[in-house]
Amino acid sequence: MPSPATLTIDLKALAANFHTLEAASGAPVHPVVKADSYGLGASACAERLMVEGARTFFVARAGEGERLRAALGPDAAIYVLDGCLAGRAARLRAAGLKPVLNTGAQLAEWQAAGGGACGLQIDTGMNRLGFRLEDAPEPFAGLDLVLSHLACADDPAEPMNARQRDAFAAAAARYPGTLRSFANSGGAFLGPDYAFDALRPGICLYGGGPEGRPDDRIRPVATLSAEVLQVREVPAGESVGYSRGFVADRPTRIATCATGYADGVLRAYSPKGLVAVGAVLRPIVGRVSMDVCAVDVTGVEIAVGDRVELFGARRMLDDAATAAGTIAYELLTSVTARVPRVYI
Length: 344
Ligand SMILES: *Cc1c(COP(=O)(O)O)cnc(C)c1O
Hints:
The chain has helices at about 10-25, 35-40, 40-50, 60-70, 90-95, 105-110, 160-170, 315-325, 330-335, and strands at about 5-10, 55-60, 75-80, 100, 120-125, 130, 145, 180, 220-235, 240, 245, 250-255, 275, 280-285, 295, 305-310, 340-344. The protein is α/β, with parallel strands linked by helices. The protein has 2 domains: about 10-195, Alanine racemase (TIM Barrel, Alpha-Beta Barrel); about 220-344, Lyase, Ornithine Decarboxylase, Chain A, domain 1 (Beta Barrel), CATH 2.40.37. Helix 4 (about 60-70) links the parallel strand 2 and strand 3 (about 75-80). Helix 1 (about 10-25) crosses helix 3 (about 40-50), helix 3 packs across helix 4 (about 60-70) and helix 8 crosses helix 9 (about 330-335). The mean pLDDT is about 95. The structure holds pyridoxal-5'-phosphate.
């Protein structure tokens, strides 16, 4: 029996997106599986991606890397984007993790602990993590990957993309023989001169489009579905949910569905949110509450026990995110531990 609210992950679609990214860019894909593969489950996703040929992965935190190492065994290379924080080198080494060094202090910390295989992040304009171009260190032993990150890859018309690419090419030339990784999901579709030696995509693997909207090249991977707990006829003039968030202006059929903000259905899904009820999209009405939300199913054939889809193949993830005033990344990573992940 599926749980009332379930996140279903289609591993075949994940694999298809992996191969699409490689084909689009001509470069190998080194999947980003941080934040538990954007909430989809890093072990299951990375194991499947290894079957598809992936050998190198990126996580954000050392703890994520340790869990991934336990799941994948010794054959995978795992880079930690946080780098080497003070006092953490031994822990990274024990799990065979490669820090992506971001600062001179991190480099010193890593080398003081004996150094070894690691990456280096160059900041080419995002001003988030990494060495400024003028502060980039001389080549050093153990360095096997140099990366930089695009700030606006979801907007192909943004001139900053080419400036960052050129700055990265110049910086990477200082480290001959070191693998160069530049493009995230959006970057994978910006053209061959953005691919360098390895891609670092996340969201497109997990079903989000490269430009923040549904894209025919990317298959939906995650489906958040919820069971209908009750169907009721609400007379005109009555309200639904907390704070009279919705008032019926006509007789309205309401399906109360088993998912709420404690599952990651943000309160911001209302008032613009739509869910797929069978083949049609219907509005979420009133306030999303902790465990349930209300859907206007007037005129729709629906019964207790049916399932509605918050996002998935019939309600695209990017559209659901836009309606909630956010992005696919946040919708996926908002799905909480209460929701079982089911792999198909
Ligand atoms: C999260 C992240 C990625 C993946 O980005 P997507 O837009 O999800 O493809 C790549 N590189 C770095 C440094 C990141 O932080």
